Amino acid sequence: MLRLKAGIAALAVAATMASAAWAQGTLRIGMTAADIPLTTGQTDQGGEGMRFMGYTVYDSLIEWDLTSADKPSVLIPGLATEWSVDAEDKTKWIFKLREGVTFHDGAPFTAADVVWNLDKILVESSEQYDPRQAAQGKSRIPAVASYKAIDDYTLEIVTKEPDATLPYQMTWILMSSKANWEAMDKDWEKVAGSPSGTGPWKLETFVPRERAEMVPFADYWDETRIPKLDKMVLIPLPEPNARSAALLSGQVDWIEAPAPDTIPAMEGNGFVISSNAYPHNWTWHLSRLEGSPWNDIRVRKAANLAIDREGMMPLLGGLMVPAKGFLPPSSQWFGNPTFEVKYDLDAAKALMEEAGFGPDNHLKVKALISPSGSGQMLPLPMNEYVQQSLAEIWIDVEFMVVEWNQMINLWRAGAADPSVDGAMSINFTYFIQDPFTGLIRHLDENLIAPNGTNWGHYSDPEMQELFKQIKTTFDPEAQDEVLRKTHEKYVDDALFLMVTHDVAPRAMAPKVKGFVQAQNWYQNFSSITIEE
Amino acid sequence: MLSYFFRRLLLVLPVAFGVSVICFMLVQIAPGDPLTAIMPVDATAEEQAAMRAAYGLDKPLPVQYAIWIGNLAQGDMGKSIATGRPVAQEVFGAVQNSLLLAVSAAVIAFPIGIFLGFLAGYFRDTLLDRAVTALSITGVSVPNYWLGIVLVIIFSVNLGWLPSMGAGPGGSQSWEWDWLHMRHLILPAVTLAVVPIGIVARTVRALAGDILTMDFVQALYAKGMSRGDVLRHVARNAASTALSVMGLQLGYLLGGSILIETVFNWPGSGFLLSNAIFQRDLPLLQGTILILALFFVAMNLIVDVAQAAIDPRIKRS
C-alpha cells in the first residue's frame, strides 16, 4: 500500500514537473499547417508560412506595418530605408539599405547579400540557387529584370517594364545569410536545421512536422521589435479538434483558426478570441466565356443582391466581415462604388425578370466548390447558403464538389478547360493584400488561365487601362487613387459574387498579453508577453 | 523448417513487386497535382512546366515507375516534393513512431482480448459470455476517432490528467521512456487498442469454445488431467489461429491508424500519409504506402513461420 502511495506521489510530482517545464515567457502556438514552414528563407505553407517563419526569422527590404489593429497595413521601410524610381528611366529603382544590420550568425547585411538572395531564387546557374525557395519566390517578383549592388548600402533593380508595384513585390523576398550557407557546406538541407536571417527571432531547434522553437535576436535592428518573450514554439496542428483540445488542455497557449463551434466553449472557459478584418476574400469567380449567363450584368447584380450576408454570420459564429465589395470595406483601396452590395431580394428579382428569368424560367448554373481548403472557412454550409439564396431568385445551382488540391488545379486551368466540366463559377479564397494579388491577377487579360489566374477569361479595355495606370503611377498616393477606381469598377460591374471576408480568428489563453492583431496576413509577435 | 522459411521468403518477392506497382499506380490515379504544395497559385504555366520537368513529373508513367523502382533497388526512395527531405528519413522516422504506438496498443489489447475471449469461451452461453460478447462488439463498432475525441475531452480537457496531442516535450526525436513522454502515449494507445481487443476476444472465444467441445478435451479429462493442464492444451490448439489474427491486427495498428494519429497529432506514418495525400506528395505517398505494405507482408511471413513452428500440421501441409 505504501509503495502504491509512493508511486502515485511520484506520478503527481512528475505531472507537476511536466507543466512547470515551460518557463514563463514561452508562447506555444498551434498552427493550422501540417508541417513547419520551410525555414531557409522563402517560406512555403502560404500566408501562415510567411507569418510564422518568414517575418519572424527574416526581413525583407520593404515590410508591412503591423503595429495597428485600427487601420489597414501599409508598406514601411524594412532592410531598405528608402526607395525610389529614376525620374528619367522608370524601369530603374534605387534602394538605400539600412546600415548596421547583422544576420543571426553575426555577418553584416549589405547590398551584395540582396544580390546573392535574388540570384538564389532567379539564377539557376548560381551556386546558391535553391529550387524550393525559387518555387516560392520567383513568381512573386515578375517585374525584376536585373539587379546590382552600387555600393555596400545601395542597390539598383531594373524592371522589365515600368512597374510601380515593385515595392509590393519586394515584400515577398526574404534575406538569408550567405555566410551561414557557406558555414553549412553550401547545403540548403543543413541550413534548414540552422538558418540565419536578420529577423527578430532566431530559430533555435526544429523537428520536422512536430515543432520549431524560436528565441529573441537581441541585436535586432529595430529595438521596438525585439521580442519580449523568452521563447516561441510553433506546433503544426492541422486538425481543428486537436487544435482546440490542445488549447483547452493547456498544451498550447494560442491556436490559429479555432473551429467556429468551439468558440463559445473557449470563451466560456476564459479564453480570448482575437479577430480583425484583413485582406482575405471568399468569393465566386464567374465565367465570362461566350454563352455564360454571368455575362449579363443584371444577373450578376441580382445574385449579389440575393444573399443575406448578415444572415450567414451565425453559421460562422459571427467571425466574418460581410462583403460590401471585392476588397474588405476597411481597405484603403475600397473607394466609393455606386453599386451597393447588400441584401435586397425584391431588387434582385426585378433584375432577374428584366433579364428574362422568373418562376417558370429558372436559370441553371454549375458551380465548383470544395469541402475544405486553405482560407475556405466553412465551405459546404456557406455554399449551400448561397445556393439557397440564389434559388430565391430562380437561379438553380448545381455543385461540382472537388477536393482542395484538385480545386487549385481547376483554378489554374480556367473556365474554358475541359477539366472544369462546364462549371460557370468557382468558389475560391485567397490573399488580396497588394495590388497584384488583390486586383490585377484576377482580371488582367494577359493572365487569362492557364497563363495566370484570370479564371473567368474576363477581358475589358477599360479595366486593362486601369491596370496599366496602377503599374505606371509611381506616386503612392496617386497610385492608391487608381487602385480605388479599379475597385469601384470591380463592384459597379458586379464582376464577382462577393460574399464575405474572413477575420483571421485565433484563440489564446488569458495569460497571453500584448498582442495587436494587424489587418494583415502577417503579425508582429514581438509585443507579446505571458502573464502567469 | 529452414526450407519452409526460404520458400515463404521467395514468395514475398513477387508480392513486394506487385505491391510496388499497385502503390505507384494508386497514387497516380487520384486527381490533383503535387506542384500545388510547392508553388504559389499564381505561378505561371512556364514556371509550373519547369518545375514539373525538374521533378521528372513530365515523363511517361512507365518511365517514372522505372526510375523510381531503379532508385529504390539502390536504396534511394527519393525526396519529398513538399518538404525536400529524403523520403526514407521521413518514412522511417514516422514508422518508428507508429510502431511505438502500435506495439503499445498491442500490449494493451492482446492480453486483454485473449483473457476476455478465453473467459467467454470457457463460460460459453452464460451471462459472462454475453457481457464479453457485448463488450467486444462495442469495441469493434465504436468509431475509434470518435472515442479518441471523447477520451481527450474527458482526460485532457476536463480532468487535465493527460496530454491531448504530440509525442512529448521536444517532439518524437527526444523520446524517452519516462513519465513525461509516456503520458503522451496513453490516450492514443488506449484508443487504438479498443478494436483489436474486440477482434481478438471474439476470435479467442470462438476458438476456445469450439476446442473445448472436441473429443480430445474429454479424453484429457478422462485421463484425469487437471483443469489447468487441459486449458494449456486448449490454448496451444488455439494459438496458431489467434496468432495469425494478432499478426494481422498489428499490421492494421501500424498502417491503419491515420485517424487516431490525426486526432492525437501523433507524428506517425498515418499522420504522414494523410498529409502526403492532401499535398499529393507522390514520392512520399509511394514510399509510405510501400513500406507499410511491406511491413504487412513481413508480418504475414513472421506469422506463417511462427504458426508452422507452433503447429507442425501446418508445416506438413
Brief sketch in words of this structure:
The complex is a heterodimer of chains A (532) and B (317). Chain A is of the alpha+beta class. Chain A contains 17 helices and 21 strands.
Structure commentary:
The two termini of chain A are 37 Å apart. Chain A has 532 residues and is of the alpha+beta class. Chain A has 17 helices and 21 strands. In chain A, the strands form five sheets. Chain A has a seven-stranded mixed sheet. A six-stranded mixed sheet of chain A has the order 14-18-13-17-15-16. Chain B is globular, with a radius of gyration of 24 Å. In chain B, helix 4 packs antiparallel against helix 5, helix 4 packs across helix 7 and helix 6 packs across helix 7. Classes of the chains: A alpha+beta (532), B mainly alpha (317). At the A-B interface, helix 1, helix 4, helix 7, helix 8 and helix 14 of A face helix 2, helix 6, helix 7 and helix 11 of B.
Strand and helix map with partners:
The complex is a heterodimer of chains A (532) and B (317).
Chain A: H1 2-20, E1 26-31, H2 46-54, E2 62-64, E3 75-77, E4 80-85, E5 92-97, H3 111-122, H4 131-137, E6 144-151, E7 154-159, H5 166-170, H6 178-183, H7 188-193, E8 201-207, E9 211-216, E10 231-236, H8 240-248, E11 254-256, H9 263-268, E12 272-274, E13 280-286, H10 297-305, H11 309-312, E14 321-322, H12 345-354, E15 363-369, H13 379-391, E16 395-401, H14 404-413, E17 425-431, H15 435-443, H16 461-472, H17 476-492, E18 496-501, E19 506-508, E20 512-513, E21 529-530
Parallel strand pairs in A: 1-10, 1-11, 15-16, 15-17
Antiparallel strand pairs in A: 2-3, 4-5, 5-7, 6-7, 8-9, 9-10, 11-19, 12-19, 13-17, 13-18, 14-18, 20-21
Chain B: H1 2-29, H2 45-54, H3 61-73, H4 87-122, H5 127-141, H6 144-158, H7 179-212, H8 215-222, H9 227-255, H10 258-263, H11 269-279, H12 282-310, H13 312-316
Helix pairs in contact in B: 1-12, 4-5, 4-7, 4-9, 4-11, 4-12, 5-7, 6-7, 7-9, 9-12, 11-12
Family (chain A): Belongs to the bacterial solute-binding protein 5 family.
Domain Solute-binding protein family (chain A): 75-424
Organism (chain A): Salipiger mangrovisoli
